[in-house]
Amino acid sequence: VTAYHMAWLKHYYPLEFYVAIFNQQPMGFYNLETLKEDAKRHDVGVLNPDINESQAKCTIKGGALLLGFLSVRGTGESAAEAIVEARESGLFGSLADAMQRTGLQREVLENLVAAGAFDSLAPDRRSALWQVGLLYRPVGVQQALPLPVDQDMADLPQMSGWEAMLEEYRTMGLHPNGHFMAYLRPRLDPEVLPSSEIADLDDGAEVTVAGLVIRRQHPAANAVFLTLEDEFGHVPLVVWPQVFQRYRLAIKEPVLKVRGLVS
Question: Which has the closest alpha carbon to 177: 58, 67, 20, 23?
Fold first, then answer.
């Protein structure tokens, strides 16, 4: 497939294009968060995996990309197949029902909860994680009676949006409903401009930006090339040798705040 064919598919069939790209990860260049943001800019929404609707790989649901179980950390092909096969006898009615019928390992269950896969059955993710701890029995242990655990549930504070976002980054490498920088923006100094405002600045203007580092390139040239991503787009940076040597340890961090000149 040539670059022309890829561009044609992306232009005319963006939803199908992104589903195919997501299902070919890892491809070694852009991460899923960056691909998700690019999909959003092409009017393609990305949905959290759903225990009753997702397949092993990403699929299409109502004009959006529905993440598959393989998108969740620790959920391999055998676990994904176990979910799909168990569901053939009927949709899961509860978290406990899914646990009993799939026989998934505890880590997989907890990652699926953190990724939002059980939101349709147990929207309070912190309580759902507590319930997994109460119900889970390791493989090889004598099967216990499926007794109710309502009396053992604790009154826990609901997971905040910030916590849910961090858990989704941990378990999937992306946050389907938004971007890390959108949560961080209210805490930043007003001098930190979003990428959407930089194009209007004059050449040579001093500017401060912040974002996720989505690309680092150190070619044969002396300069190091970085690309930051925020909730609005990308900021390409050229870091000159003396600056790179001074900040070479800081530059390795996943999120950077950078002051420089517009070129």
Answer: 67
Question: Which two tokens mark 116?
Answer: 């939002």
Chain centre to alpha carbon of residue 249: 26
Pairing of strands 234-239, 59-61: unpaired
C-alpha span between 250 and 55 (Å, rounded): 40
Distance from C-alpha of 191 to C-alpha of 207, rounded to nearest angstrom: 8
| Whether 71 contacts 83, CB under 8 Å | no
How crowded is the C-beta side of 42, counted as CA atoms within 13 Å? Answer: 22
Are 213 and 228 in contact by the 8 Å Cβ rule? The answer is yes
Listed residue (79, 126, 133) closest to 106, CA to CA = 133
pLDDT single digits (tens) 202-234: 999 999 999 999 988 887 778 899 999 999 999
DSSP per position, 214-231: EEEE--SSSSEEEEEE-S
CA proximity to 30, closest of 200, 256, 238, 212:
212
Q: Evaluate if pTM is beyond 0.90.
A: no
Report d(CA 260, CA 244) in Å as an integer.
Answer: 13
